[in-house]
Amino acid sequence: MRIDIISVIPELMQSPFEHSILKRAQEKKLVEIHFHNLRDYALNNYGKIDDSPFGGGAGMVLMIEPIDKCITKLKTERNYDEIIYMTPDAPILNQQTSNTLSLSQNILILTGHYKGVDQRVRDLFITKEISIGNYVLSGGELAAVVLCDAIVRLLPGVLGDETSALTDSFQDNLLAPEVYTRPATYKNKEVPNVLLSGNFKKIDAWREQNALKRTKRIRPNLLN
Ligand code: 6GU
Question: What is the position in ligand 1's atom list of the atom closest to the CA of 135?
Fold first, then answer.
């Protein structure tokens, strides 16, 4: 898989890709991440990429020309399965969307900043819009990192233990069960006995029950 990310501040996204699972996925050549600075496609030498909104109002709007130049160039180089715009006014990311996107060859992600992008960018180039939740971030960059992490960890070979992504929370619309490790007793707090029993049938049954109980308590809407 190849992921291209267009941003005004690509620096905001670098470090998460330089550690742990996202780093290992790139080293194993399972994913390539390419950042593109929108300012490199600016209209003039001052690097102009935004302007005030027609009709007035606060904030700046990302202009269509630099974004057009950047997206058009990238589209001549390869076909994209999706061209995604990260924005709070969009459907919210879930595991199902991540699963589907993880089957892509090439994904292009545009991250907004300031008051967003000229609507015509969304009308002309964007094939999918994604929010990561009902709150507002300063820009789409952190949301893009969240999306990439959610997708890349699903690529075959990225996680050491192949079953590990399958037992994540949400893969079966349930939260994951509680987990414990040594010591078995800590300041009078005991690990559930069944987990120490060595009876894997019982352990599986307990985990299923525990997942269901936690989902009912914490996220009952997942059960509908
Ligand atoms: Cl994708 N962008 C911004 N700026 N804020 C958000 C978001 C995205 N998702 C939730 N809040």
Answer: 11
**Residue 134 Cα: closest atom of ligand 1:** 10
Looking at the domain 169-223, which fold is it?
Trp Operon Repressor; Chain A (1.10.1270)
Q: Is 139 in the pocket of ligand 1 (CB under 6 A)?
A: yes
Residue 7 CB–ligand 1 contact under 6 Å? no
Residue 66 in contact with ligand 1 by CB distance below 6 A: no
**Domain range summary for the chain, segments of one domain joined by +:** 2-152, 169-223
Model confidence pLDDT, tens digit, residues 169-181: 887 899 999 999 9
Tokens of 13: 């996204």
59-106 tens-digit pLDDT: 999 999 999 999 999 999 999 999 999 999 999 999 999 999 999 999
Q: What is the DSSP string of 166-193?
A: GGSTTTTSSPPPP---S-SEETTEEPPG
The dihedrals phi and psi of 107, each to the nearest 5 degrees, come to -125, 135
CATH architecture of 2-152: 3-Layer(aba) Sandwich (3.40)
**Distance from residue 53's CA to the centre of ligand 1 (Å):** 20
Q: Which two tokens stand for residue 20?
A: 């742990």
Please state the pTM of the whole predicted model: 0.95
The finding on whether 114 has its CB within 6 A of some atom of ligand 1 is no
In a mutational test of the pocket of ligand 1, which residue from 131, 138, 147, 148 has the highest number of ligand atoms less than 8 Å from its CB? Answer: 131
One fold for 2-152 and 169-223: no
Q: What angle do CA 5, 67, 83 make, to 5 degrees?
A: 50
